């Protein structure tokens, strides 16, 4: 005997089995089918084989602004803009021929519908076909995407505006994946949007600077915004400092969903700020030094006078010897104070017209008589032109040259070579942009170079600070180079320093030429500079300011320019553009891959490639090494636009 559940009779089980069939029958009734169709949010239209409407639901009524009784029996053309009707008929015919039963929403792409009043609007549609009693019917489901199209158009417009922005703008999700990357971000960091979308921004541009990034992220998640500075890295490995403005973006429910980032490259601004702060520090130290020197002078004056009185009264040898020691050291202290005061007061002195050639010749004679015989002192100047005069204080300029030569002697304990050269130089706006203190105009340059131990790069920024010295205690005051700088600046000039450890140091002193001492020919208009004709020049230099100024100069004179920060980047760029690059202008001293290595690598790729080499050190062997590699033109830094353009015109001349 069959057992039944105590709560269910056999009749109830039969009812449960029959209920789905009853529900299906109910739903299949015309009334309920019409109710379901009319409840749909999308418009539903059915047409027969002749494309006359046989079904028009309530959403269609609202969408096309037309009652069903007016639409039924009408051709579907009534709701299609005239320019799309032929294409629509062709599409329906083709669809019928394929014997497919349906095509999904969006398969037709974006098309347009037409309301009863003639207004057009964008729609998205899907189509299906079925046969009933030998009749063919097509059902179209239509969605009005007017609002969505407006939003998409607005987003495209905003994206286009963001691409025009000068700042790098990106959007990242809460997991730091990049969602948006504008054109300025491409220019700043070197990656295209296609390369970075979906990438993790931490691994891309922060790398070893993650701790400040994580702290900033915590703040923006807590407060909704953050503003600050972060160190970042570009595609080619260059370090930069960015001023960042972050804002938390929330969804319609108020939940955080992404972070909008606006980054401004302030690397150059920070460098200028550092120079300005250094100048302020120097001024403050100078004021302090002046005050201390004044007080020390007041203390030493009576001491020296008292020593002189005691020397007259003392009679025994021991007392006289001690008094002499006191006097020598007190006088030495007085000389030191003179140096301090010279630095602090801006070393003003009498300015007269001077011919540097005669002044340097006298200094060289003194140097040869006083420096160790193991040090060779040379002097050179152009014999084929008249050197310009300068307006200055002969004693102070004498002090400058002697100071530099004594430092050179100390850098060559085993002996070496000091070379002093003179030349006329004219600087244009382009060169002035390379050096903060330079002004366009005519200068006399005095170059003092040695082949000593050189100066390490981290120390170059500090060598002109007063009291800074690398010499042993008791062997240097740290006032020599600060006094040199003070004297040159007081003459309206400036200094460039180039050094390489183990290779030597070059000081280039620029003094404004005196107009009274200029030959007539030099006062005439400068000759017209040669122009390029769209030739592509690859500029390779690890100094960004030099790369950018050289690039803008060459572009202004008709050349196209590619730039690389070191030899490895240059090789990659040349491999991509070897058919278009006409000349490679390369610095000889660079990290990672220096000039000679770059020249050799490019020669292997193309034996015919033309080179112009440049360096700030003229006596470090690089020019000879470049010549050995077949480089015929060598430019000494800093070079002017005139010299660069003439060099290019020369190398590009048809052979």
Mind explaining what this structure looks like?
The protein is α+β, with helices and mostly antiparallel strands and 655 residues long. It has five domains: 40-144, PAS domain (Beta-Lactamase); 149-265, PAS domain (Beta-Lactamase, 2-Layer Sandwich), CATH 3.30.450; 272-344; 352-522, 2-Layer Sandwich (Heat Shock Protein 90); 529-651, 3-Layer(aba) Sandwich (Rossmann fold), CATH 3.40.50.2300. 44% of the residues lie in helices and 24% in strands. The protein has 23 helices and 23 strands. The strands form five sheets. Strands 1, 2, 3, 4, 5 and 6 form a six-stranded antiparallel beta sheet that branches. Strands 8-7-11-10-9 form a five-stranded antiparallel beta sheet, with helices on both faces. It has a five-stranded mixed beta sheet with strand order 13-15-16-18-17. The radius of gyration is 42 Å and the shape is elongated. The N and C termini lie far apart (115 Å). 25% of the residues are buried.
């Amino acid at each position: 005997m069959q057992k039944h559940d105590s709560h269910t009779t056999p009749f109830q089980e039969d009812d449960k089995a029959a209920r789905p069939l009853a529900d299906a029958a109910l739903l299949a009734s015309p009334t309920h089918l019409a109710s379901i169709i009319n409840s749909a949010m999308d418009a539903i239209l059915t047409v027969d084989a002749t494309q006359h409407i046989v079904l028009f639901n309530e959403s269609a009524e609202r969408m096309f602004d037309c009652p069903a009784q007016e639409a039924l029996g009408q051709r579907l053309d009534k709701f299609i803009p005239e320019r799309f009707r032929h294409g629509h008929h062709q599409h329906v015919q083709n669809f019928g021929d394929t014997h497919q039963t349906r095509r999904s929403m969006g398969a037709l792409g974006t098309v347009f519908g037409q309301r009863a009043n003639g207004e057009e609007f964008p729609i998205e549609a899907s189509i299906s076909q079925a046969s009933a009693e030998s009749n063919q019917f097509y059902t179209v489901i239509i969605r009005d995407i007017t609002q969505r199209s407006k939003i998409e158009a607005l987003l495209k417009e905003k994206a286009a505006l963001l691409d025009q922005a000068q700042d790098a703008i990106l959007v990242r999700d809460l997991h730091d994946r990049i969602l948006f990357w504008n054109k300025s971000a491409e220019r700043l960091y070197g990656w295209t949007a296609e390369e970075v979308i979906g990438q993790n921004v931490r691994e891309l541009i922060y790398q070893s600077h993650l701790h400040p990034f994580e702290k900033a992220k915590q703040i923006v998640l807590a407060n909704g915004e953050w503003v600050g500075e972060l160190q970042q890295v570009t595609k080619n490995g260059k370090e930069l400092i960015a001023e960042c403005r972050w804002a938390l973006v929330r969804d319609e429910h108020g939940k955080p969903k992404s972070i909008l980032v606006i980054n401004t490259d302030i690397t150059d601004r920070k460098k200028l700020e550092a120079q300005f702060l250094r100048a302020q520090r120097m001024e403050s130290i100078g004021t302090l030094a002046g005050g201390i020197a004044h007080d020390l002078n007041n203390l030493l004056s009576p001491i020296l006078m008292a020593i002189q009185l005691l020397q007259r009264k003392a009679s025994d040898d021991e007392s006289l010897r001690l008094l002499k020691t006191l006097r020598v050291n007190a006088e030495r202290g007085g000389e030191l104070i003179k140096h301090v005061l010279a630095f602090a007061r801006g070393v003003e002195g009498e300015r007269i017209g001077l011919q540097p050639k005669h002044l340097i010749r006298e200094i060289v004679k003194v140097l040869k008589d006083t420096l160790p015989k193991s040090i060779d002192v040379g002097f050179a100047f152009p014999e084929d032109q008249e050197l310009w005069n300068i307006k200055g204080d002969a004693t102070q300029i004498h002090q400058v040259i002697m100071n530099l030569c004594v430092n050179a002697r100390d850098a060559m304990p085993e002996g070496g070579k000091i070379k002093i050269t003179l030349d006329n130089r004219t600087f244009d706006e382009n060169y002035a942009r390379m050096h903060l203190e330079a002004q366009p105009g005519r200068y006399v340059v005095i170059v003092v170079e040695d082949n000593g131990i050189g100066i390490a790069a981290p120390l170059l920024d500090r060598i002109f600070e007063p009291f800074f010295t690398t010499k042993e205690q008791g062997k240097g005051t740290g006032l020599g180079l600060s006094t040199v700088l003070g004297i040159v600046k007081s003459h309206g000039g400036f200094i460039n320093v180039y050094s390489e450890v183990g290779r030597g140091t070059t000081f280039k002193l620029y003094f404004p030429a005196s107009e009274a001492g200029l030959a007539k020919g030099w006062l005439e208009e400068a000759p017209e500079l040669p122009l390029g004709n769209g030739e592509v020049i690859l500029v390779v230099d690890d100094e960004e300011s030099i790369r950018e100024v050289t690039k803008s100069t060459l572009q202004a004179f008709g050349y196209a320019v590619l730039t690389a920060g070191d030899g490895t980047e240059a090789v990659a760029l040349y491999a991509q553009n070897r058919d278009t690059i006409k000349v490679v202008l390369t610095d000889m001293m660079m990290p990672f891959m220096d000039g000679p290595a770059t020249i050799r690598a490019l020669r292997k790729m193309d034996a015919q490639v033309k080179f112009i080499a440049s360096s700030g050190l003229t006596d470090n062997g690089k020019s000879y090494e470049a010549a050995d590699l077949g480089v015929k033109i060598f430019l000494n830094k800093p070079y002017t636009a005139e010299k660069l353009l003439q060099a290019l015109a020369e190398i590009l001349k048809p052979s």
